[in-house]
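SUBJECT: A protein chain and its fold
Encoding: whole-number codes for local backbone shapes
RECORD BEGINS BELOW THIS LINE
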Amino acid sequence: MGYELTKTVAPRWLDMPDGVRIEVRPYDSMIEAQAEAWAARHVRDLLAGGDAAEFLGIVLGDGAVDPQNLHKLLRDVGVAIHAIKAWEGVTVDGEAAPLEPQAVWRWMLDPVNRQTFLAIYDTAYREARSEGNA
């Protein structure tokens, strides 16, 4: 999926499935750079056997994460970590999940959540741009 950068500065609330609402910053070059740096740092750390494995809860070679897609997965999660300002309706064990990187990582590990978030996030800012609001 390609992302289209925007000049819109106002955050937006996105309605996700299952009653989840997410307030996001506009997708811009800062989000792009932060997501890429976040992904690269964690890939390097994982390959070096550092603390990222504990934070992410994965071990390379355990079959849970395809190493071929690891950087893309981490980049997509990095987009969410740096774009999301607030969320409502995200729960862990029946309790409201705090908005912190590890909670975003866990939520984005679900392929449906990840694909839906990325599609809705991208679409929202493409629509704003086409309306002349970006």
Notes: The radius of gyration is 15 Å. The chain has a mean pLDDT of 82.
